[in-house]
Amino acid sequence: MESVKHIAEENIEHIDHLAADEATVAKYGERANNGVIIVTLRYDKEAEFTGGKSLTDYVSERVKWNENWGVARFVARYTISADGSFHLGSVLESTDHQLRKRVLRALQDMPKWQPATKQGKVVESEYVLSVQLPKGKAMPKEPYIVIR
After folding, report:
1. Do 63 and 102 contact (CB within 8 A), yes or no?
2. Domain extent listing, the chain
3. C-alpha to C-alpha distances, 113 to 63, 72, 81, nearest whole angstrom
4. For 85-100, what is each residue's pLDDT tens digit?
């Protein structure tokens, strides 16, 4: 392919660069005259959420959040097992304790996923969930601190 801009960085397992030599051109054809970059993806097919549009939308629709409570964000790693079950990993950011509790409650009733595949086999996969409420509002900027 001509470009890999559409591939999310976290889905790349590793990148190899092959020099533009006779062996590379023999294997990949004339298009390899300037070398070849081989991008190996973590999954052939990523895990697919079966509960609607996306996991973020699913959680956002189930968490009751009043706009008067301000903007809050919850970010965490999660894995989808080969059997399609969801497992919450480490919490990377939680700006509000109430939002955290509500997101965790919403995640408890989630349907099973279609697991990721690699070389035709189902595999465990890892992703990051980011929920910011209310939707469409920006997080307040951090205060500017001066130490004298």
Report:
1. yes
2. 9-41, 55-133
3. 20, 27, 9
4. 999 999 999 999 999 9
Residue matched to tokens 């939680």: 94
| CATH among 3.30.2420, 3.30.870, 3.30.1380, 1.10.150 for 55-133 | 3.30.2420
For the stretch 26-77, pLDDT in tens is: 998 988 888 888 888 888 898 999 988 899 999 999 999 988 898 999 999 9
User: Using one digit for the tens of pLDDT, what is the confidence trace for 132-147?
Assistant: 999 888 877 776 677 8
- CB burial of residue 24 (10 Å; 0-12, 13-18, 19+): middle
Q: Identify the CA nearest to 82 among candidates 34, 110, 43.
A: 43
